Amino acid sequence: MIEIALYQPDIAPNAATIARLCACFGLKMTIIEPAGFVTSDSNFRRAGMDYLKSVELTLAPSWEKFYAEKQGQRLVLLSTKAHQSHVSFAFQRGDILLLGRESAGVPDLVHESVPNRIRIPMKPGMRSLNVAMAAGLVVGEALRQLEGYY
């Protein structure tokens, strides 16, 4: 199974939409704190709807604790700074897809500590996709490669 980890997300509806994606495909999800909202936030609950009770959601108190806990698992960072396309990357069971903050991505320390970095190719001049859309595209490709293993 693959997992999704959100690094200090700041927009509750985006995080909840990703939680819904996780619920629908049986993926675990971690929110690496501090987040810009609490999971009891009405915007988070509204966007996640009743799917939130079907997702295995974990809160990690910090990047350091998350990183230490996930040693031995392969982290894959979605980044606009990466060179490798998500469709040319060979996903593996157990991968953790790491997505950064909507407003700032991840800091250099996180970027440098994750050797597997991928990007979604886009038309020149475009900065980035919505984080929930990016998660959906990459999860779809990973599941396609892994033959919808859930």
Describe the structure.
The chain has 150 residues and is α/β, with parallel strands linked by helices. The chain has five helices and seven strands. The chain has helices spanning 12-25, 42-48, 63-69, 108-113, 131-145, and strands at residues 3-7, 28-32, 57-60, 75-78, 84-85, 96-99, 116-119. It has a seven-stranded parallel β-sheet.
Radius of gyration: 14 Å
Low-pLDDT stretches are none
Order of helices and strands: EHEHEHEEEHEH
Span of the ends, CA to CA: 7 Å
CATH architecture: 3-Layer(aba) Sandwich
Strand order of the largest sheet: 3-2-1-6-4-7-5
Give the CA-based shape.
globular
Helix content: 25-40%
Structural class: alpha/beta
- Whole-number average pLDDT? 92
Beta-strand portion reads 15-25%
Question: In a nutshell, what does this entry contain?
Answer:
This protein is of the alpha/beta class and 150 residues long. The chain has five helices and seven strands, in the order βαβαβαβββαβα.
Strand and helix layout:
Layout lengths: L2 E5 L4 H14 L2 E5 L9 H7 L8 E4 L2 H7 L5 E4 L5 E2 L10 E4 L8 H6 L2 E4 L11 H15 L5
Parallel strand pairs: 1-2, 1-6, 2-3, 4-6, 4-7, 5-7
Give the tags.
150 residues, alpha/beta, 7-stranded parallel sheet, 5 helices, 19% strand
